[in-house]
């Protein structure tokens, strides 16, 4: 980071190589659109470059800082736009399962993904960080700029909504 | 750990106890060993966890979150390099020729700062030492009086 604050673009490319993949991954999960996710990841990394003189390595890690920028950009994007539709091919099924099992599994996944997509932005971000990225609650709290208790509440509300959607879909199927 | 707290943790973090707050894991595992209700809560949370993992894997495949997406990384690197290369660093003429301004970075840096600061500090310290070592008018007057005055004058 010291090289970055000194203007060394080649050294900064090392940071892009090291941290770019997770920035892309998180952005894709949160905004779904690949082009938009690429733009967000790029914007986040450029902000790390332009603000590197303000970064204090004794107080935070680069990964935490970059996570925070990516997540905040994605949250802003989700709040501006209506939920994105899923890209083609997301309803892939396991060819080894029986037809009825395949249909049921696909329906559950579709329901769950739709529900995830409709979650409030911060709940979706908390679930992505903890379940998909494997961050602890404390680490996710640092990224989101919240207390650990606040993150627990976000996760609990998110999971409760997902359960309701799954239960509702199951009731509809059972009634068919 | 109380069962209510255990439930709150499963509600938030699911069945992966290793994601739970570190300071609570030991007591949570102890409760799991002794409480059938705790085990039921964990099993229930695990079902949603598994559904989320399956959905997440499908989503990753659909949005291109593969393990080795070199093309996307290459585009990212090229895009970042193009943008940061356009961020100039401006150097102004005297009297600010020692100031470097980078508008994209929003930072002002003073070149040669250590030399200027050192000079200023040296001057300040020198003045301070000189002031501290200079004899004070009152003390000089008393000393002079005590040394020069005949003893008999001091006793009257």
In short:
The complex is a heterodimer of chains A (176) and B (156). Chain A is mainly α.
Describe the structure in your own words.
The complex is a heterodimer of chains A (176) and B (156). With 176 residues, chain A is mostly helical. Chain A folds into two domains: 83 residues, Orthogonal Bundle (Rna Polymerase Sigma Factor, Chain: A), CATH 1.10.1740.10; 86 residues, Orthogonal Bundle (Arc Repressor Mutant, subunit A), CATH 1.10.10. Helices cover 74% and strands 0% of the residues of chain A. The radius of gyration of chain A is 19 Å and the shape is globular. About 3% of the residues of chain A have low confidence. With 156 residues, chain B is mainly alpha-helical. Chain B is built from seven helices and three strands, in the order H-H-H-H-E-E-E-H-H-H. In chain B, strand 1 and strand 2 form a beta hairpin. In chain B, helix 1 packs parallel to helix 3 and helix 2 crosses helix 3. Chain B is flat. The C terminus of chain B is likely disordered. Chains A and B meet through helix 2, helix 3, helix 5, helix 6 and helix 8 of A and helix 1, helix 3 and helix 4 of B.
């Amino acid at each position: 980071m010291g090289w970055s604050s000194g203007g060394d673009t080649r050294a900064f490319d090392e940071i892009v190589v090291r941290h770019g993949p997770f920035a892309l991954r998180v952005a894709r999960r949160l905004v779904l659109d690949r082009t938009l996710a690429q733009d967000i990841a790029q914007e986040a990394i450029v902000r790390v470059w332009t603000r590197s003189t303000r970064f204090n390595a004794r107080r935070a890690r680069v990964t935490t800082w970059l996570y925070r920028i990516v997540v905040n950009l994605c949250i802003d994007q989700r709040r501006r736009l209506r939920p994105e539709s899923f890209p083609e091919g997301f309803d892939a099924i396991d060819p080894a399962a029986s037809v009825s099992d395949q249909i049921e599994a696909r329906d559950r996944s579709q329901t769950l993904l739709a529900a995830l997509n409709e979650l409030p932005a911060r709940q979706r971000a908390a679930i992505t960080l903890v379940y998909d990225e494997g961050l602890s609650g404390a680490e996710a709290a640092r990224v989101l700029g919240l207390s650990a208790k606040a993150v627990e509440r976000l996760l609990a509300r998110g999971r409760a909504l997902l359960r309701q959607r799954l239960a509702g879909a199951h009731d509809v199927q059972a009634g068919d | 750990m109380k069962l209510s707290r255990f439930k709150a943790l499963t509600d938030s973090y699911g069945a992966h106890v290793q994601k739970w707050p570190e300071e609570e894991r030991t007591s949570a595992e102890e409760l799991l060993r002794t409480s059938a209700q705790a085990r039921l809560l964990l099993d229930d949370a695990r079902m949603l966890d598994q559904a989320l993992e399956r959905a997440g894997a499908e989503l990753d495949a659909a949005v291109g979150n593969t393990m080795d997406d070199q093309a996307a990384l290459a585009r990212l690197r090229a895009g970042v390099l193009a943008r940061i290369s356009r961020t100039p660093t401006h150097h102004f003429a005297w009297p600010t020729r020692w100031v470097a301004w980078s508008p994209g970075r929003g930072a002002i840096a003073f070149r040669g700062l250590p030399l200027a600061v050192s000079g200023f500090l040296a001057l300040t310290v020198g003045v301070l030492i000189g002031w501290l070592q200079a004899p004070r008018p009152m003390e000089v007057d008393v000393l002079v009086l005590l040394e020069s005055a005949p003893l008999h004058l001091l006793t009257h």
